[in-house]
Amino acid sequence: MRILLVDDHTLFIEGIKLLLENEGMDVVGIANDGREALERVRALKPDIVLMDINMPRCNGIEGTRLIKAEFPDVKVIMLTVSTKDQDLFDAIKSGASGYIDKGIRPKAFVASILGVTRGEAALTREMASRVLDEFVRADRRQGTAAVEPPEAEARTANDLSPRQTEVLRYVTEGYSYKEIAAALAISERTVNYHMAEIMSKLHFQNRAQVIAYAARNGLVDPAKPGDDR
Description:
Layout: E1 2-6, H1 10-22, E2 26-31, H2 34-44, E3 48-51, H3 60-70, E4 75-80, H4 85-93, E5 98-101, H5 106-117, H6 125-142, H7 162-172, H8 177-184, H9 188-202, H10 207-216
Parallel strand pairs: 1-2, 1-3, 3-4, 4-5
């Protein structure tokens, strides 16, 4: 796993680098803002970018947009102190695979990164709920699928098998693959397979599109995510 760190606070970023390397991960480079991050991605070809939001010259949101536009397969995880809903929503809309509070415990931090490599979203259930609510409100305001690609209009929940629909509901509500596997009495590998099939059938590019689709098709109650679990 090749990781690029992007933050303008040297002491913090050196601490993260040491933590990740102690866990056997390969920190291939460091950048100080979003535009420099894009240059490093071009040169170093990382698998994951850990990106701060508030940086000079080019912030993390814009940096994520630039990276995902050119390198859609690179996973970007926001690592920030910002608790603003708008930062969370903008990060997911920009293509981020997760959003982690810098106050997280080291063990949980490492687990979140490993989860992203398995295709999970680094979002707490509370964050997933906030994102779901925001996209539902945005749809009501705009009357369109703002975060889905144009061909999404032709899709229906019938494109998915019953098991895939179950998996999609759990993922949208912020459950980890391990938790989904336990709830459905299947293996994590099977959960990963179903998610790959969901993304392939519906041509999703990020979790924002998954959440918007699930909300629009009544697969999740935006008022009470997870209450029936």
